[in-house]
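Figure 3 (text version): structure tokens given as input.
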């Protein structure tokens, strides 16, 4: 299944609009994804960064986020409050190729391979909830905001 997933995930050029399908889904986090990446450590699979949209996107097994509270109306709430988007079968997403990304800087932080493709959705959810708390409660509390000055290691 991994070879089929790689075939439908990776574009034949620097970046292209791809369709999540029966072989792979994806989960993107805007603004604070690097905190999740740090929390996951070596448990992360393939993940790419889009610096223009300021998000990180993890490749997850198809249907792996079905237990996440992403159905209406919470799907919109998750995006608005936590800036999390789940890409399921049929959804479109811009994916970089393996040749170094695009002019806009989109690139793989951890490139996909047959040995390292999927991030376990339970581990990913655990990392997310370790930062913002339980998803349903966090979405009700409102947007996640980061102070970029402190995020870069500067102290007051």
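Below: residues designed for each position.
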């Amino acid at each position: 299944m991994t070879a089929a997933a790689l075939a439908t995930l990776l574009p034949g050029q620097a970046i292209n609009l791809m369709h999540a399908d029966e072989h792979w889904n994806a989960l993107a986090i805007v603004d604070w994804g690097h905190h999740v990446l740090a929390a996951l450590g070596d448990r992360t699979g393939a993940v790419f960064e889009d610096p223009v949209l300021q998000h990180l996107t993890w490749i997850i097994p198809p249907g792996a986020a079905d237990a996440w509270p992403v159905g209406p109306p919470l799907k919109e709430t998750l995006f608005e409050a936590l800036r999390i988007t789940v890409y399921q079968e049929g959804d479109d997403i811009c994916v970089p190729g393996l040749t170094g990304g695009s002019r806009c800087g989109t690139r793989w932080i951890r490139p996909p391979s047959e040995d390292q493709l999927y991030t376990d959705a339970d581990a990913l959810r655990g990392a997310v909830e370790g930062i913002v708390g339980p998803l349903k409660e966090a979405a009700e509390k409102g947007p996640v905001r980061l102070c970029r000055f402190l995020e870069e290691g500067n102290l007051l």
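DSSP finds six helices and seven strands in the chain.
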